C-alpha cells in the first residue's frame, strides 16, 4: 500500500499536474493540502475520472484538505479539530480507507513570529496532539499526513543559518511541539528511511529555490506503531516539482506492507 501527501497549492490551477501524478504513480491513498477551493467548485468529476474516491474539506481561496482513495470512497471520521469552536479554517480531515485511519493535515504557517499567527500555530499543534493521543489509544492503524509547516532538524533545510533561521517553521517552540507529538509514539516515515537528512519536499518559487535546490522538508507522514511495523520505504517524487506550472511542494510518500 502506498500512501502519499501532496500540498497541491491550488487544486484547480494544478489539476493537470495532479491527474498526471495520480496516473503515473497510482498511490492507494493521497492526501492533499492547500486546495484553495470551496466545496462547490471542487473538481470532483476529474478526480473521480482518474479512478479515485474524493473526500474534501474546502475553503474559498485558502487552506483546504482532501483524502483520495484509489477505487474506493473514504469514509469520513472527523472534520476539523476540537478545542476552538470559533476556528473555521479548513485544515484537518480524517477518514477510514483501505483498512487504515488517515488524516490530511495543513498545519498553520505561523509567520510572522512572534505574534497572533504564531500563537495560533502552537495552539493548533497542541489540539492536533490531543486528537493524535485519542487515535493512538484506539490502536487503529493510523497515518497523520500533510504539510506540517515544521522543519524538524537543521539538516532538513538547505541552509539552517540563513534566511529560515527566524522563520516560524524552525522556531524552538515549533520544534518542541513537533517532538512532543512524536514522543507520544509516532514514527516519522521519511526520516526513518533517510536519517541523514538532506531530503527536501518544498522549494520556494522565489530566488531560484528549485533551480538551486534550496529546499526544506515540511511534508511529513507520521505512522502509529501498527503501521510503523509495516513500513517498507518512503520517498519524495521530486521530479514532479520540476514540471511546468508545478506546485512548490513535491509529493511525499510511504509504502507499507
From TrEMBL:
Keyword vocabulary terms for this entry: Hydrolase, Magnesium, Manganese, Metal-binding
Site description Transition state stabilizer, residues in chain: 149
Listed InterPro entries: AP_endonuc_1 (IPR004808), Endo/exonu/phosph_ase_sf (IPR036691), Endo/exonuclease/phosphatase (IPR005135), ExoIII-like (IPR037493)
Site feature: Important for catalytic activity: 219
Record's cofactor remark: Probably binds two magnesium or manganese ions per subunit.
Residues that bind Mg(2+): 7, 34, 147, 149, 248-249
Origin superkingdom: Bacteria
Residues in Endonuclease/exonuclease/phosphatase domain copies: 4-249
Manganese among keywords: yes
GO BP term (any one): DNA repair
Residues forming the catalytic site: 106, 147, 249
Gene3D superfamilies membership: Endonuclease/exonuclease/phosphatase
Pfam families referenced in this protein's UniProt entry, alphabetically: Exo_endo_phos
Similarity field: Belongs to the DNA repair enzymes AP/ExoA family.
Protein name per Swiss-Prot or TrEMBL: Exodeoxyribonuclease III
Source species taxonomy: Bacteria, Pseudomonadati, Pseudomonadota, Alphaproteobacteria, Sphingomonadales
